[in-house]
Amino acid sequence: AGLEWPCIMDVKIGRRTWDPLATPEKRLAEEGKYKACRQRYGLCIPGFQFYAVRKGGALVRHGKDYGKRLTEDNIRDAFLLYLNATEDGRLSRTLLERFLADLRIIRDWARKQTTFRLYSSSVLLVYDAAQLGQCGDSALQRNTSLNASNGQTAAAPLAVKARMIDFAHAFPADASEAGTVDDNYLQGVESLVGLFEQFLAAEENVD
């Protein structure tokens, strides 16, 4: 089934987004984009949309202009918006745990792979806010569907995914980099996992 309230965020990974074939002009242009976030976290947010549960499912979109204003001081606010934080800043633990399950798989792969260098690649975050909107955080934990075969109530699969996308600028590692990981990509993924782990730890401390 499709998503009722699809919330989508494009997280571009890497301090450096220009590939080895880029012209000097292209390099200069890329280096000036989203500089504050890329230098600190190795990632940036070119855009996202979410359905605001607190506003009855109103669609909110933020594009490149919003992303370019983000810094290390306020990038967390963008994630809080996207994740539908409550008025007092609470987040769905289930939502965070599901995202982290996927993000850690990507991170573990990036910690081991030495074959490629990824430039201007992204991690796409997707979830269905309608599952949050049914009755708050517990909606994700208790969302159920009727199993027609036996009449029993079973947990419905949650529409929460993090996926690697955009490989147009993937290049084989140079001979001088043989056997080494792609630090440019790894830093961004580590930062993304770290941010979500901080959000989850905050929820656990409240509980």
Structural commentary:
The protein is an alpha+beta fold and 207 residues long. The chain has a single domain, classed as D-amino Acid Aminotransferase, Chain A, domain 1 (2-Layer Sandwich). It is 40% helix and 24% strand. Helix 5 runs antiparallel to helix 8 (183-206). The radius of gyration is 19 Å and the shape is globular. The two termini are 33 Å apart.
**Helix content percent band:** 25-40%
* Proportion of residues in extended strands: 15-25%
Within CATH, the superfamily carries the name Inositol polyphosphate kinase
SSE order in H/E notation? EHHEEHHHEEHHEEEEH
Terminal residue distance? 33 Å
CATH architecture: 2-Layer Sandwich
Number of strands: 9
The order of strands across the largest sheet is 3-2-1-5-8
Shape: globular
Mean of all residue-level pLDDT scores: 87
Contiguous helical run count? 8
CATH class: Alpha Beta
CATH topology: D-amino Acid Aminotransferase, Chain A, domain 1
Topology:
Layout: E1 6-13, H1 24-31, H2 35-41, E2 43-52, E3 58-62, H3 64-68, H4 75-82, H5 93-112, E4 116-118, E5 121-128, H6 130-133, H7 137-142, E6 144-146, E7 153-155, E8 160-165, E9 170-172, H8 183-206
Antiparallel strand pairs: 1-2, 1-5, 2-3, 4-9, 5-8, 6-7
Helix pairs in contact: 5-8
